[in-house]
Specification:
It contains 18 helices and 44 strands. It is of the alpha/beta class. It folds into 4 domains: 245 residues, Rossmann fold (3-Layer(aba) Sandwich); 127 residues, Immunoglobulin-like; 118 residues, Immunoglobulins (Immunoglobulin-like, Sandwich); 204 residues, 3-Layer(aba) Sandwich (Rossmann fold), CATH 3.40.50.880. Strands 3-2-1-4-5-9-6 form a 7-stranded mixed β-sheet, sandwiched between helices. The chain has a 7-stranded mixed β-sheet with strand order 35-34-36-37-44-43-41, sandwiched between helices. α10 packs antiparallel against α11. The chain starts with a helix and ends in a 7-residue tail after the last helix.
Length: 837
């Protein structure tokens, strides 16, 4: 029985290429004759490699493309995190939403370089300077178990790490930790006493060796190569029409939210792999690994048929090798159950589909349906090349429940067969990414189902299993599974696909994520309520912390059609004293109570993603005073601060380049440069001269953090200062106020060290570490064990006004509703109004 369970888990991987929403943009892409031949060559090779690192974009796409394309191995990238703690160049997604975006960018990259994608349960909590800190936040035992699980499930012959385990404190703590855990997992994966609960679903596995993808030979002319291999990844593949450097650049350019567009690399280029553990290889990373069908008992018969297919392959008629492929598949079915049997069955079945010119899909007329409503599906199949092909049946799987469709259809050359059917959706869970279904910790996602751990996405809620019959004299049946998708036409982009999802009956979107109450005055909270089910009625209930009041507390609602929206307004009266908590909106239809919001992540380079988090917002009552009203704001990348400032009563106007003139700026009490403006706006060196003239006349100019690379000017201030990579990653790190008497700490709010409590993710980043004596450093902070950093808040007087450079992470603290951050930021804005200026 245990062996059967393991086999079921392995079989579930057969549908990765055809049956995951990751392929939603093109669920069954056509393959050229060259691509079919390349896949046929790969069918002969039984080798696998797992690349391990910490984040999306840490992977070496050059090596992945080389291993999948040239060596024709199965390759995977295990990213310990989904990149939730990074920045976002193209939008305002942060935290888990950014993790969703970066997950999809990884999958887009894998569709180009040919590798597969895996994850652990670790959450990217932001920059970490040392693996000790990383493992203090992550649950080491759980992440280690996940790496062991990945090795046992993927069964790599060779593991390659992006980072060294021996560089603690010299690079990102997540980076070093990924190499440390990879090394420990390498030693444990073959031990049945390690994480024995996994052996219900898989077997132990011991890779041959583990290597470090080192960069040291580039820097050290005296480097010792005795334990380091070099691999030329610059080879040109004529079947693919590209070199692996070119393929890698296309894949890396999918990391768009990280601004990692890459130039295509052409010509010879070496990658270096240093021995870390296991058997030492002297010539090749797979030295001593049998990558032929001889590694599988009885595999010679399979290889015979593959060789015949290769010998008979005709680029003008790939369909002629279908009989050989069917014979190879039949030979595989006779093999003992095992990893390579199941992996190669998946590959040969894909090849049969492509070589026969077969196309099929299950398309929903809507992108999502709620339980209790019906979904209309169109099943289609097309035989585009000669040769007998019959459709013998379709099974629609709603979760774990199959529905049989009685279909017997001989397919006619190049004529589409279609059937429309309607099904009632019942008792299906709402489509939420599995790692977001439960609240985790600061460093870990909670995932209850062992079989889901490591998967890039949740399984599709609806799947269609087509049974086809090939041939005439000795027909062979084969089942192939695809996800139900929604296909639509965009007038600009053309035909597009997106995953089908199970919707909640109703979603409520609260207008803001955080509401700040600077006094006792009530605020009106706007709710956008959308029905996803026909004939829906019930009531909304408003929940608030103790001492807060809502009017009304309950709202009756009624909708006739799915898709209808209505807006409501609730007045919220804050508590009398400083406090914070959650505003939660629940929906009750008399039978069940739920709370869902709807967030859409939509970009051209990924399939549209929907997330259904609880309908909640943070409410914060703070004691806040402010001076000045009107702010000119130069928008940064993914910048939410203007909305935050409006919430506390500022009049914020977004400035275009043309509006940044000395005359126009005079009307503002302060001008603020958003996050990374000097990185994203190449005109800032010229525009800031106008702003400096405004400051000389008595204005205030506040510049938030910029990165030290790709900056438009070396001097983003009136006097010299140099931006460094200095940062304070521990958000609880004490902040020392160097000049408590300075107006910025006294007007209009009295600032103390207590105002630095409750900050999120980090103190700040990219602090200046050198500056002119005319700047005054007002704070000091540092991570544990490091020297004090004084570059987080610099102020200089320029003429009658003030220039402020601050690397504190306002872009995280203000959207998170941190009271002390608001009080200090308001003081910075107000410095020009201070009576003590």
């Amino acid at each position: 029985m245990q062996r059967l369970i393991r086999l079921i888990v392995i079989l579930s991987c057969l549908y990765v290429s055809f049956c995951t929403p990751a392929r939603a943009q093109d669920p069954l892409p056509a393959k050229s004759a060259a691509e079919i031949l390349h896949a046929l060559q790969k069918l002969k090779v039984l080798g696998s490699v797992l690349y391990v690192a910490a984040h999306p974009d840490d992977e070496n796409q050059r090596l992945l493309a080389y291993f999948t394309g040239e060596e024709k191995f199965r390759a995977g990238y295990l990213s310990l995190t989904r990149g939730d703690g990074g920045q976002n160049l193209i939008g305002d997604e942060k935290g888990p939403l950014l993790g969703m975006l970066r997950t999809q960018e990884l999958l887009a990259a894998r569709r180009i370089d040919g590798a597969e994608q895996l994850f652990s349960r670790a959450l990217d909590f932001g920059y970490s300077k040392h693996p000790d800190e990383t493992l203090n936040v992550w649950n080491k035992e759980q992440v280690l178990a996940d790496v062991v699980w990945a090795i046992r499930s993927f069964r790599p012959d060779v593991i390659i790490t992006r980072f060294s385990p021996d560089r603690a404190g010299m690079t990102h703590g997540h980076h070093t930790t990924s190499a440390i855990l990879a090394g420990e997992a390498f030693r444990l994966a073959g031990d049945p006493g390690a994480f024995p609960e996994q052996l219900k679903y898989t077997d132990v596995w011991q890779p041959k060796r583990i290597l470090w993808n080192t960069w040291l030979p580039y820097r050290d002319p005296n480097y010792d190569f005795s334990q380091t291999l070099s691999v030329d990844i610059g080879i040109f593949n004529p079947l693919l029409g590209k070199s692996y450097g070119e393929i890698a650049a296309e894949a890396r350019s999918m990391h768009k939210c990280q601004a990692f567009g890459a130039a295509r690399l052409r010509g010879s280029s070496l990658e270096y792999l240093k021995h870390t553990a296991g058997e030492l290889a002297l010539q090749h990373p797979f030295e001593g690994v049998n990558t032929s069908w001889n590694r599988v008992k009885g595999g010679e018969e399979v290889e015979k048929w593959i060789n015949m297919a290769l010998a008979d392959f005709d680029a003008n008629a790939p369909r002629l090798i279908v009989p050989q492929l069917l014979a190879a598949r039949q030979a595989m079915l006779q093999l003992p159950d095992g990893y390579w049997k199941q992996q190669k069955l998946k590959e040969v079945e894909q090849l049969i589909v492509y070589a026969s010119g077969l196309w099929f899909e299950a398309n929903s007329s809507q992108y999502g349906v709620a339980n209790g409503d019906s979904v209309q599906l169109t099943f289609s199949a097309l035989k585009r090349l000669p040769g007998r092909l019959a459709l013998k049946g379709i099974e629609l799987w709603m979760g774990n429940q199959p529905i049989e469709l009685d279909i017997q259809k001989e397919l006619t050359d190049n004529e589409i067969w279609q059937q429309k059917s309607t099904f009632l959706l019942q008792n299906m869970p709402v489509s939420q990414p599995y790692w977001l279904e439960k609240a985790g910790t600061k460093g870990m996602f909670e995932v209850a189902d062992q079989r889901l751990i490591g998967q890039p996405e949740s399984p599709p809620p609806l799947k269609a299993r087509f049974e086809f019959e090939f041939g005439e004299n000795q027909p062979v049946s084969m089942e192939v599974e695809v996800p139900v998708i929604h296909k639509y036409v965009d007038r600009a982009m053309g035909e597009l696909y997106r995953p089908f999802v199970v919707l909640p009956a109703l979603t409520t979107n609260i207008a803001e994520n955080v509401y700040l109450f600077a006094n006792d005055e009530p605020q009106n909270i706007h709710l956008l309520v959308k029905a996803h089910k026909h004939n829906l009625s019930g009531s909304l209930h408003i929940e608030l912390p103790e001492g807060w009041q809502a009017s009304p507390k309950e709202i009756p609602i009624s909708f006739e059609r799915a898709g209808d929206e209505k807006q409501y307004e609730v007045q919220v009266q804050p508590s009398s004293g400083q406090s914070e908590g959650k505003l939660r909106v629940t929906f009750s239809d008399g039978q069940a109570t739920s709370s869902y919001s709807l967030t859409e992540i939509a970009y051209d380079h990924i399939p549209t993603q929907l997330i259904f988090n609880p309908a909640e917002a943070k409410v914060v009552r703070i004691n806040l005073k402010k001076a000045g009203e009107r702010i000119g704001y130069i928008m940064g990348s993914g910048d939410e601060i203007p909305a935050c400032l409006r919430q506390v009563g500022y009049q914020v106007e977004l400035l275009s380049d043309e509006e940044i003139t000395r005359e126009n700026l005079r009307k503002y009490d302060a001008v603020i440069a958003g996050i990374r403006v000097y990185n994203t706006n190449q005109r800032m060196p010229y525009l800031q001269q106008e702003i400096f003239e405004y400051v000389k006349e008595g204005g205030t100019y506040l510049v938030q953090y910029n990165t030290s690379y790709s900056i438009s000017t070396e001097q983003p201030g009136p006097y010299p200062l140099r931006i460094s990579r200095d940062r304070v990653a521990v958000e609880e790190a004490p902040v020392k106020i160097l000049r408590p008497e300075h107006p910025v700490f006294n007007y209009p709010n009295k600032i103390t060290e207590a105002d630095f409590e409750g900050w999120v993710q980090e103190r700040g980043l990219y602090f200046p570490n050198e500056w002119d004596e005319r700047y005054e450093a007002l704070t000091e902070c540092n991570d544990p064990g490091e020297s004090p950093k004084r570059g987080a808040l610099l102020i200089a007087q320029l003429g009658k006004g003030y220039f402020i450079y601050t690397g504190f992470s306002w872009f995280r603290e203000l959207p998170a509703g941190v009271p002390g951050a608001y009080r200090l930021f308001t003081n910075l804005i107000s410095i020009g109004q201070s009576p003590d200026r």
